[in-house]
Amino acid sequence: MHLSTGFSDLSWKPVMTARTNTLEYWLNWRFLVCAIEVFSSMLIATILIWKYEGFNAGEEGEEAQEEAAGTLYDDESWRPCLKEIHPAWLLAFRVTAFLVLTALLIINIAVQGGEMFYFYTQWTFTLVATYFGVGSLLSIYGCQKFRSKVDSNMLSQMRLETEQGTYVVPTSAESTNTADRMKTYGSQEEYYMRPVGGFWGYAFQIIYQTNAGAVVLTDCVFWLIIVPFLTMRDYSLNFVSTLANLTMESQDASDPFPLIFLSFEYFLLKRILICIVRQFMIGMHSVNAVFLLGDTALNSLRFPWYRISYFVLWTGVYVIFQWVIHACIPIWWPYPFLDMSSSYAPIWYLSVAVMHIPCYAIFMVITKLKHLLLSRCFPQSYVCLR
Questions:
Q1: Inter-CA distances, 378 with 76, 81, 196, 204, Å
Q2: Pick the residue with more confidence: 333 or 4?
Q3: Most confident of 62-76, 90-104, 196-210
Q4: Are the C-beta atoms of 243 and 279 separated by less than 8 Å?
Q5: Which residue in 87, 94, 102, 109 could disulfide with 136, CB within 3.0 to 4.6 Å?
Q6: Transmembrane segments in this chain: where (predicted)?
């Protein structure tokens, strides 16, 4: 038996207002205006990426010599923002986040199946899990590189002292102090000889900044639009009331496994699992934000403003995906404001597009506050000073 059997009532599915696979649904002024809004936003985002991402870095001139806003150095993807924090701590955090998010994602897929990917929330949740997966690999690489650099510096120092005849076998405490000095030395030296990041480093940074805006957007849409809408429609989000309602439905003829064929214990377990998963689905709108904020507090990644373009492209691809699906299959819209049968659809689309700016700005403010506080409290240790 598939795990999702009997769990079809887990997902909230709006009522279809019109058949979406007909020409009448698409050939009208509403879709034309919405399409102009979506594609113009994606076009502007593409232009910003082309202008600021450094594709013209080969041009000569004084301006070309300046560091591009989106420049990423190799160590920024794995080095913590404070010198006293070992890269292994950032690695441990990322591995933990990746395992937790992946486990939650697997559970959600097992319960809901591929249908879960109709929702923008699940796209973003998957992207956040991908971010921590790639980040874990980059942190492993960084820890190995950091260890090699420290060992190399210590060996060079000992050789120099031996040649000068001043080398003395260090005690345990002295070894620790020497290692600390070598770490600081390595940090200072690499500041002037830092290689630029490769493909995976840039991809990692782009995913990070896309996630930042998308996580804020999904939380705002869920808590400010979806939850109030469900509350007005008496869709219970409370564990106790949901369990009570499900127990009252125990003899529902629509249940594919009537109680007569099952033990009461199995039925009760199934219903409790439904309630737990419902609460888990609500929690998914916050747990990814918590992990992303934790990584933001630790990492050394920059946050250039123009990278909002990738966030806009991410949402645009999702909207186009929904259009293609609905043009082929008559199916409910995962979010009511995407339904173009309403005359207010262009306003809804424009409103969501405008929401991208404050959603991205919120995370920019968070990173600015982090930079301000850490640079003042730990001026000698904070490595993100430019």
A1: 18, 10, 25, 26
A2: 333
A3: 90-104
A4: no
A5: 94
A6: 29-50, 88-111, 117-141, 214-232, 311-335, 347-366
